[in-house]
Write a structure and sequence with these properties.
The protein has about 350 residues and is α/β, with parallel strands linked by helices. It has 2 domains: about 260 residues, Aldolase class I (TIM Barrel), CATH 3.20.20.70; about 70 residues, Antifreeze-like/N-acetylneuraminic acid synthase C-terminal domain (Type Iii Antifreeze Protein Isoform Hplc 12). Helices cover about 30% and strands about 15% of the residues. β6, α6 and β7 form a beta-alpha-beta unit. The radius of gyration is 30 Å and the shape is elongated. The N and C termini lie far apart (about 60 Å).
């Protein structure tokens, strides 16, 4: 299994910038102008990729499937109303590339896989609900492109079965995403610690597909080790459609990206050492041994002649007992820090 996965010109794994996907999903509202404006806003926020969803209602839901409790329409009718026209994919792909963004989509049927592969997507994203469709996983993996696999609702057995199906095709470029399949997801079910658990168990890059409100949880996920973040966004949360209400707006997307980049810098390398930026504070803010009175050359130094205070240019306080009883090698004025050059050895 690979600890690093390359998506186009970006690498996902330890030591690399978090790969950030702006999930447009169905928030284009079947309007090309809105879809392109969303790509513009994603580029302005400096994400790595935009993501759409490629499905046909007839191949995704039975017309007899009952509606979800939160929806006013049956799944088939709802999905039918927000299908991204397949003839738009190439144009949107090329538009994203012009904006220096990767274009990724989630395929939900074999024809969708073929279409996305043909236009040149750098990776495939598999939605959580499809993790048990092993035929779709194998068909997608056979295209020999990285697979980003969401794991909402899945246990380790199901994840292992999905991984085995993908790997059986000879494709081991896999990124797992911890995910909660609720829209929006309540904070109490997020379980960010699962990111580290999955990383330790599967030894491949693990990210987080977020459905919570706001931007603080995906930022925290990066601090927990997420190597990829996926977040739904929209032009306006008040717009009509199934995914707008829990998505973030462009200004929040921009802030989320900035916060993630700040967190990456703040995480550092884990070594507890003095940084170059702290050198002045180290020298001027630390304490050292200071003369509490004039100490003439040749004087035997007593404890009363020394005070411990700032700055830290002098001998470190831990050497106080080594200095007491020594002879001053030269005159030391009151309030001057004492150095080893001032002491006879």
């Amino acid at each position: 299994m690979k600890k690093e996965v390359k998506i186009g010109n970006k690498t996902v794994g330890d030591g690399y910038s978090t790969y950030i996907i702006a999930e447009i999903g169905a928030n284009h509202n079947c309007n090309m102008k809105i879809a392109k404006e969303l790509i513009d806003k994603a580029a302005d926020a400096h994400v790595d990729s935009v993501k759409f969803q490629t499905y046909k209602a007839e191949k995704l839901y039975s017309k007899k499937a009952p509606q979800f409790s939160k929806d006013d329409m049956k799944p088939f009718d709802l999905i039918k109303s927000v299908e991204l026209p397949r003839k738009w994919h190439k144009e949107l792909f090329e538009y994203a590339v012009e904006k220096n963004l990767h274009f990724i989509s989630s395929p939900f049927d074999f024809e969708a896989v073929d279409l996305l592969n043909e236009i040149g997507v750098p990776a495939f994203k598999i939605a959580s609900f499809e993790i048990t469709d092993l035929e779709l996983l194998k068909y997608t993996a056979e295209k020999k492109k990285p697979i980003i696999l969401s794991t909402g609702m899945a246990d380790f057995e199901e994840i292992n079965e999905a991984l085995e199906a993908i790997i059986s095709t000879g494709n081991d470029d896999i990124i797992l995403l911890h995910c909660n399949s609720m829209y929006p997801a309540p904070i109490e079910i997020v379980n960010l610690n699962a990111i580290q658990t999955m990383s330790q168990e599967f030894k491949i890059p693990v990210g987080f597909s977020d459905h919570t409100l706001g931007i603080h949880i995906p930022v925290a996920a990066v601090a927990k080790g997420a190597k990829l973040i996926e977040k739904h966004f929209t032009l306006d949360r008040a717009m009509s459609g199934p995914d707008h209400s829990f998505a973030i707006e462009p200004h929040d997307l921009k802030q989320m990206v900035q916060n993630i980049r700040d967190i990456e810098k703040a995480l550092g390398n884990g070594k507890k050492v003095l940084s170059k930026a702290e050198k002045e504070m180290y020298e001027k803010g630390r304490r050292s041994l200071i003369a509490s009175q004039d100490i003439p050359k040749g004087t035997k130094i007593t404890r009363e002649m020394i005070i411990i205070k700032r700055p830290g240019y002098g001998i470190k306080p831990k050497f106080l007992n080594d200095i007491v009883g020594k002879i001053a090698k030269r005159d030391v004025e009151e309030d001057q820090w004492i150095t080893w050059e001032d002491i006879k050895k």
